[in-house]
Design goal:
The structure is a homodimer. Chain A is 43% helix and 18% strand. By secondary structure, the first copy, chain A, is of the alpha+beta class. Chain A binds a DNA duplex through helix 8.
Chain lengths: 260, 260
Amino acid sequence: MTAPPRSAAAAAAARVVDIGELRQSCAACALHALCLPASIDGHDLARLDHLVKRRQPLDRGATLFREGSAHPSLFVVRSGSLKTSVTLPEGDNQILGFHLSGEILGFDGLAGERHQCTAEALERASVCEVPFEQLSRVAAQVPGLQHQLFRVMSREFVREQQHPVMMGRKQALSRLAIFLRNLSERRAATGHDPLELQLSMSRQDMANYLGLVIETISRLFSRLHAQGLVRVERKTVRILDPAALHALAEGGEDENRALA
Amino acid sequence: MTAPPRSAAAAAAARVVDIGELRQSCAACALHALCLPASIDGHDLARLDHLVKRRQPLDRGATLFREGSAHPSLFVVRSGSLKTSVTLPEGDNQILGFHLSGEILGFDGLAGERHQCTAEALERASVCEVPFEQLSRVAAQVPGLQHQLFRVMSREFVREQQHPVMMGRKQALSRLAIFLRNLSERRAATGHDPLELQLSMSRQDMANYLGLVIETISRLFSRLHAQGLVRVERKTVRILDPAALHALAEGGEDENRALA
DNA sequence: CGGCCCATTGAGGTCTCTCAAGGCGTGTGG
DNA sequence: CCACACGCCTTGAGAGACCTCAATGGGCCG
């Protein structure tokens, strides 16, 4: 599919397509299995479907919600990717995670009336929104949904725990290897080629997430490229030697000098 | 209170005291406000109280649950403190957090049938246990409890996010300052003197948690002591200059050389 | 085509890690 | 009650890894 010319007719057609997408119900959604409990029946599904809002696609750099945003919601990423971050008192910010297609974000807002971090699109992205207040009410009446919510929250909880595990590694090369391996696994989980990574975030974002500086990221990529472990082409990274990358990811405590 | 002599009678007396503690109901528990929704009524409270198990106190080094433990539960720390950690493929482990009196742990097990990390007592500690499977069933029938569970989970979610924020700081001194400030705030939240910290974990645990080595921790404490910011006495740390500590915690990105 | 931003690469400095030795507190056994 | 051993913590010297500063290269968009 090639990019259409910028005409009013084409724009209108694109909008129609978007609306078509937006009208897609939960029952027909490709992410069905990720969102919904397997045991939910047609009647309950309709109730859930009713409170899901499909938002207009977000452009690159657009914010989905900010620290302090009221009426928090859960969001399911239907396409594209986002990053979440918190702003530190000094002004700079720490990136907490990247959220790919099929993943859920927004759990930070459930503790109170407001979101605790900021979510921004890394590329054009579309999401489903489920206002938490309404979701909570429905979950109270649909035990299967409540249970699924606990499961999904806990899964995110465990996923978040991998961040400090990575940051705790003393060697920068191990952190990057873990990061790439993690993305590879998430590609596989959504049915894509796990060896072909699309890094939608900037080098700066990666550096921030890994607790390094941008130059170090760049040098490490060059090193991995020179050793034939990956093929780096701007935002596209092809993993050529998964086993070696895996070894780098593990050997981060003290014996990685032998591997380098 | 001095340590009693090791006699059979004293041991029996201690056990009686323990049982007395164990029989305390949720309604009378000092942690009431942390566990329970404010709106819960007497009848529902009784149902919840019924499924809470009070465990025998854990000795220092005892494990509350391990990675892979079946039938996951939530635990409320009633006294003492614990640490949670995951074991890495190479054999060493990463500490994910410390859990003080009044705090809740065990959310890692809700995603599946088993816990995903290991919890170990840092000192003699007592906890309340709530098997998640039963809690989930009751929560489905008590909307106030369900809502409170979401809130507590989300609060832990946000609390966990502070770990990578701290690890992301390039300077070791900032990480330690943030760690101490965090402990201070948690002391204040539970009604204790926020300037008097009892570090129940070893220097090795602190180093692991902060992504540093033990010698660095020791040197940083000496530096803070020499500058008059804290008074370090083995496991006891008294904060003498909270403002300066706060400044160190913030100025970690690049301008902290000016402060040191 | 030109400007701009992002990414890459190089040289030098410094913070933290590594390796090593010594001090202190605790618990155990005589 | 004291002596000893053990573990934990502290302190020092040296090396290595990453950060800082600086300049160049390459896409992307106007």
